[in-house]
Amino acid sequence: MKHPLLVSALLLAGGLASSTYAQDRLSGKTFATRAVVMARHGMACTSHPLSTQAAVDVLRSGGNAIDAAIAANAMEGLVEPHVNGIGGDLFAIVWDAKTKKLYGLNASGRSPYSLTLAELQKRGLKHIPSDGPLPVSVPGCVDGWFELHKRFGRTPMPKILSHAIRYAREGYPVHDEAAYYWPTMLNRFGKYPNVKETYAINGAAPKRGDLFKNPALANTLEKIAKGGRDAFYKGDIAQSIDGFMKKMGGYLSAKDLADHTSEWVEPVSTNYRGYDVWELPPNSQGIAALQMLNILEGYDFSQTPWGSPEHIHRFIEAKKLAFEDRAKYYADPAFAKIPVKELVSKEYATERRKLIDLTRAASRVDAGNPALKQGDTIYLTVADDEGNMVSLIQSNYRGFGSGMVPDGLGFMLQDRGELYSLIDGQNNTFAPHKRPFQTIIPAFITKDGEPFMSFGVMGGSFQPLGHVQIVMNMIDFGMNPQEAGDAPRIDHSGSSEPTGEKMTDSGLITLESGYPYETIRDLMRRGHKVGYGMGGYGGYQAIMYDPKNKVYHGATESRKDGQAAGF
Fold this sequence. Notes:
By secondary structure, this protein is α+β, with helices and mostly antiparallel strands. Helix content is about 35%, strand content about 15%.
C-alpha cells in the first residue's frame, strides 16, 4: 500500500489534482489562505508585490523601515492608482527603536483659502460632490514623506524613489484588482482633461497583464527626489496644479500648497485585555476603534464562539454607539473642541454600554455626552533589523480621486473634501484652510511598553470595524496574524455620518461568505437587516513581533494582490 502523502504527490505530478483549498492546508484555520511569513532582519507587507519588493530592496541596501515605507508608498501610487497616489493624504505611526516610543504623523491637507461655506451653499449643494474641482483639498502625501524622512530616514530620497521612477518609465504588468476597477474610472472620469492621456492605453483601460507606463509621473517623482518637498509645494509642480485648477474653475491655489504643513501628533490608546491599542486622534476616525473596544471589553468572549450571533450583535451595537460620537465630534481640532480623552475613557464606555439591548438591534441611537462611507486606500507596514516599525496609510479617498489630473504631472488629485458637512454649526462643517474629517487610520499595538503588532485595514468607513475585528480575532479568539486577516468580515452601514446624515433605522449588516445561516437567522430575529456585499471589506497588512525569538511575523490577506516578504 502506498503512503497517502506519496499518493497525493503522484496525483499532483500527474495533473489529476488541479487545485487545493484553504481547508486542505495541514494546519491553521480553514479560512486561512496562507501561512504567516517569518523573518528576523526585515519585513514588508503591502497590497502589491512590487511595492513589497521595493521596500525589501531598500532594507537590504542599508535603509531602515522608514526609508522602505516611503519607497513602497511611492511604488503603490504607480501600481495601484485606483486607491492612492501623491495627490492624496497620508497618516503614519512609527515605533522608534532608539527612544522606544511611538510617534504619530498627520499629513492630511486643508481646504482652499478661497472657497467658502457660503459659496458652496449658494450653489444649492447638500453635499460636496465626489468629483470635479470642488472636493479637491491640498495633497499631504509628499510632505508626509519628507517629514518622516527628516525625522527618521537615512537613505537619500533619490534612491528611495528610484524604484517607482524606474517602473513608471519601463512599465509594469497591471494586477487583478486594479484591472477590475480601471474601466469604471475611465468611464467616470474620461470627460475630464488628461485622464485618458495619463491612464488609458490607446484610449482603453489596461487589462490584467497589460504593461502600463506613466512617464509623466516618473518626471514628477524625479523632480521631488532632486528638489525635495518644496519642488512639489512651491516649485513648478505647484504652479502647474494652480494653473490647472484655475482652468477647471477650481479653488486650490499655489498659496494653499505653499502654506501646507503636516503635524506630529501624540497617538491615543486604550488597553484591551492587557494590550495597548494605538490610533491617531481626529481629524481621523481612529478613536472610533478605541471606543468600540472599550465597549466590547465589558463582555466576556471566552465562552462566545467567533461568528456567533452574540459576537456579531454585540460588535454591531458597539459600532452604532461609537459612530454616533464619530458623526458629532470628529473633525479638525484646530476648528472644533473634541473631548478625545473623555471619548476613549473606560467610564464613558461603561455608560454607553448600558444602552445596548443584548436581544434587540437598536434602530436609532444618539451621540453621548462624554464630558459627564466608501473609500479606497492602501495600507502598508515595514519593520527593520534595528526594531523600527512603521504603520502607514495613504489614500486619494474615493477611487482614483477627483478626476482632476493636472497637465503633465501623471497623477490625480484627491476628493477628500467630499467629507465636509455643509450644515452650519457642526464640528466638521466646511471652512477655508480646514482639514476635513478623515477615514484613513494606521494602527499599532504594544504590550508592556514594547511593540506587539503594526497593522491596518484599508476601506473607508469600514476601517474602525476592521481594526476592532483584527484585535478581537487575535486577543479574544486566539488567531495568528494571517488568520486574523483572512477571517470572514462583518460590516455595517447606515450609521450617522460626519457629513450630516442621521441613522433612522437599524442599518444593514453585510457579511462575507463563511457565516452559517443559523447565525444570520438569529440576527434577523433580533431586528437586524442582513445582506451580502461584494467587496468593501477593506484590505489588511500586519507585522507582529516576537521579542523572545526576535522574529517578525508578516501577514497580508487574499482580498488584495498583496505580498508579505522578509529576510
